[in-house]
Design goal:
By secondary structure, the chain is of the alpha+beta class. It has helices at 3-9, 11-16, 35-41, 54-57, 64-77, 117-162, 166-193, 205-222, 243-259, 292-295, 313-323; strands at residues 20-24, 30-33, 79-87, 93-102, 109-115, 201-204, 225-231, 238-241, 265-274, 278-284, 327-333, 337-345.
Length: 348
């Protein structure tokens, strides 16, 4: 069957399907793809028609072994049903469902691609919300049970200190410091669960970022880290939000970056526009990076890779950005660094 014969026969599929469709011959050569496939994959079909289907596989993040496994299964069974996570050429993170089947009457392979990114992002948001809801219920139940005895302990420490020896005072100081740490963890715990009392006003993005950078610069310099700020926005950019909460977000991002760079280096903060009237504040470090298996867990309460971390900082960050109608994207390469991209809606 020639290209024109199959095109005529399957033209109605191209017209009626809302999924991406790609036709591949039995030699593995791409014959055609519809406009929806171009849209999902962010490609131009003229760049791929006539090439091996392996060029399409190169778009995806899977390992060589995984890609070879796909092809082997497809050749042996004539059918493949899989879910793939990848990043487009324009940097957009996507989740797609791919079904490839061999058409017995023509010998051609038909690949159907469905964009499930929105569904996966929604699931992640729901999972995160459910985690925070559970955390809130837990916090409400134990807050007084913990704080009351802690208050008593601090009172007894003060009494004992008055008549203690110097050695005993040192021990009591350590105990008091540990109780203060416990109170700090409990405070973070409760911040995630209590109803928001945000004070939303009009905020100048550049001014806010510069204020945070000036605040964090001395601490960064002590660790031989330079904070660099650049802006690609051509006019004053404003968002509606709680200034203090957003500052906490960016302080947390810079603090995490400095902790990931024990030998010093650079942290770059970039401000730019995104399509759809959004502004992006990107914080990039040159630290040790985050393993792929941890990327999807870092915003979960209590998840941490730090020996002294509580695992609550990024959960709070996620909650704040969500309350501001924004989202967070994370890109990381182990051994090279991590970029947190905070995307917020601009004021209309």
């Amino acid at each position: 069957m020639t290209k024109y014969e199959y095109k005529e026969k399957f033209e109605h599929i191209f017209q009626l399907f809302s999924s991406g469709l790609i036709f591949i011959n039995d030699k593995g050569i791409i014959l055609d793809l519809n406009s929806y496939a171009e849209k999902i994959l962010h490609i131009d079909k003229s760049d791929f028609i006539g090439l091996s289907a392996r060029h399409l596989l190169s778009l995806f993040n899977e390992t060589v072994e995984e890609k070879n496994s796909f092809l082997e299964k497809l050749l042996n069974e004539g059918y493949l049903d899989t879910h793939i996570e990848f990043q487009t050429f324009v940097g957009e993170h996507k989740f797609i469902h791919v079904v490839i089947s061999k058409q017995n009457d023509s010998g051609l392979y038909l690949a159907e691609i469905s964009d499930e990114s929105e569904k996966m992002f929604m699931k992640k948001r729901l999972d995160q919300s459910e985690s925070l809801r559970t955390l809130g219920q837990l916090a409400a139940g134990i807050a007084h049970e913990i704080r009351n005895p802690m208050t008593s302990l601090k009172g007894f420490i003060q009494l004992l200190t008055q008549n203690a020896t110097e050695d005993a005072k040192r021990y009591l100081t350590v105990i008091n410091d540990e109780i203060n740490k416990m109170e700090e963890i409990l405070t973070q715990f409760l911040e995630l669960s209590k109803p928001s009392k945000s004070k939303f006003t009009v905020i100048n993005v550049e001014d806010t970022i510069l204020e945070v950078v000036n605040f964090m610069a001395p601490q960064a310099l002590l660790k031989s880290i330079n904070l660099n700020v650049s802006s690609q926005i051509s006019k004053e950019c404003e968002v509606i939000g709680d200034s203090q909460l957003l500052k906490q977000v960016f302080v947390n991002a810079i603090k995490n970056g400095t902790e990931a760079m024990p030998n010093g280096g650079n942290i770059h903060i970039s401000i730019s526009y995104k399509l759809g009237n959004f502004v992006s504040i990107s914080v990039s470090d040159q630290g040790h990076g985050i393993e792929d298996g941890h990327i999807n867990k870092i915003f979960q309460p209590f998840f941490t890779t730090k020996s002294t971390g509580t695992g609550l900082g990024l959960s709070h960050v996620y909650k704040v950005i969500e309350e501001h109608g924004g989202n967070i994207k994370v890109n990381s390469i182990v051994g090279e660094g991590t970029t947190f991209d905070f995307i917020l809606p601009c004021q209309k």
